[in-house]
């Protein structure tokens, strides 16, 4: 893991297309701005994990349904 120190208004570049900018700091809360191409999905980690879990459940349901249909 790369650890960097940035001040308000400073940025970090990720590759050629992504910029992460510190917009403000208020106590323990940091507001970040992310400039990236539209085709790159950006989610908070808890949202990303929820999406992964829902996708896994959907795949399991699909596999169960296919197995059920094959038996008929």
How many helices in DSSP terms? Answer: 1
In terms of DSSP E residues, the strand content is 25-35%
In round numbers, the mean pLDDT is 91
Q: Roughly how much helix do the residues carry, as a percent range?
A: 25-40%
Strand order of the largest sheet: 1-2-3
Rg for CA atoms: 20 Å
Order of helices and strands: EEEH
Shape call: elongated
Spans where pLDDT lies below 50 across 5 or more residues? none
Main sheet characteristics: 3 strands, antiparallel
Q: Decide which structural class fits the backbone.
A: alpha+beta
End-to-end distance: 51 Å
> Care to count the β-strands?
3
Number of domains: 2
Subcellular location: Cytoplasm
Family: Belongs to the CsrA/RsmA family.
Keywords: Bacterial flagellum biogenesis, Cytoplasm, Repressor, RNA-binding, Translation regulation
Subunit structure: Homodimer; the beta-strands of each monomer intercalate to form a hydrophobic core, while the alpha-helices form wings that extend away from the core.
Written overview of the protein:
- With 72 residues, the protein is an alpha+beta fold.
- The protein folds into two domains: 1-39, no CATH class; 41-72.
- Helix content is 38%, strand content 28%.
- The protein contains one helix and three strands; from the N terminus they run βββα.
- It has one helix spanning 45-71, and strands at residues 11-14, 18-26, 29-35.
- A three-stranded antiparallel beta sheet has the order 1-2-3, with no helix packed on it.
- The longest helix is centred in the last third of the chain and has 27 residues, at 45-71.
- The mean pLDDT is 91.
